[in-house]
Amino acid sequence: MREREIKTHDGGRLALYSYGTEDAPGERRVVLIGGAFLTALIYRPFSVALSKGLGDGWAVDVYDRRGRGNSTEQPHDYSMATEIADVRTIMDTTGARNIMGHSLGGSVALNAAQEFAGTDYQPDKLAVYDAAVNIDGSMDTGWLEGFADSVNKGDVGRAMARMKRGMNQGTALAKVPEPILAGLMAVVSRTKVNSLFRELMPSGVGELKAAFEEAETPRDFSVLPPNTHFMVGKKSPQFYKVTASRLNRAVPGSTLQVSPKGFHGSVPAAVNELVADISDYFKG
Questions:
Q1: What is the SS3 assignment for 32?
Q2: What does CATH list as the number for 2-136+215-283?
Q3: Rounded Cα–Cα distance for residues 229 and 144 (Å)
Q4: If you write DSSP's letter for every residue of 35-61 in order, what string do you get?
Q5: What are phi and psi of 100, to 5 degrees?
Q6: Are 86 and 72 spatial neighbours (Cβ–Cβ below 8 Å)?
Q7: Tens-digit pLDDT string for the chain (284 aa)
Q8: Which residues pair with 20 in a beta bridge?
Q9: Domain ranges of the chain
Q10: Helix-strand-coil percent breakdown of the chain, rounded to 5?
């Protein structure tokens, strides 16, 4: 693994980690954009597995987005435009021609590719897994203000409960009464993984609002590359499946793949079948 610190257009810095062949050419490099509340190092098992699946001569570049890991905090004027500019910075640094996004990182990837359409930054290949995009109001965002309020008050358990219910609409988890779920989340927030989650909550408010508050239409993404690959886990919440299906219909020539054993956390968990499917897509 190679670790670097990259300067951004606005004076910040991004921590960048590269796996695989260090001098791989741009057409054999994949930029991995991680989801909310997750650092680049959490994606290390997947990055290692994907670089091995791609084989010699390939590299995977994953970076800490603003407000996490060793990257700087979100700027005061943070928005999706900040995320898109950072993707451009990583592509400039690595020369990478391929992009993959997971969850909210999928939203960043899709918005970046939309912005890059018809320019030198348009990716050769683009894949997203469980992309968190609000398409035609596919997500009820009424929970966001309550989540932000709980974060500002330092009520970790209630903030986690509101986010869990909001992001898992239509599931049994979403039906658990908020006070009960908040109590449970307060207990699990003491675990190592959820301690990290708690630390990243302030940055999570900004990025979730940037991704969800304004509903977009499938037409907004019709300019994506025709070989865009939409992936979703069969065990993932319904929201992701609806979003992927709508996007697939809107992008001519795109493909939609349902991972039979897939769940929302399959990417950082480096589930074998998913790693194999993604490797085949980029190599093919």
A1: strand
A2: 3.40.50.1820
A3: 29
A4: -TT--GGGGHHHHHHHHHHH-TT-EEE
A5: -135, 135
A6: no
A7: 999 999 999 999 999 999 999 999 999 999 999 998 889 999 999 999 999 999 999 999 999 999 999 999 999 999 999 999 999 999 999 999 999 999 999 999 999 999 999 999 999 999 999 999 988 877 777 777 887 788 778 777 787 777 777 776 665 655 656 555 455 555 555 555 556 666 777 777 788 888 877 667 777 899 999 999 999 999 998 889 999 999 999 999 999 999 999 999 999 999 999 999 999 999 99
A8: 59
A9: 2-136+215-283, 143-212
A10: 50, 15, 35
Tokens of 43: 């994606």
Q: How distant, in Å, are the alpha carbons of 55, 70, 113, 131, 174 from that of 254?
A: 25, 35, 14, 15, 31
**Angle CA(229)–CA(207)–CA(39) in degrees, nearest 5?**
75
Identify residue 249 by its one-letter amino acid code: R
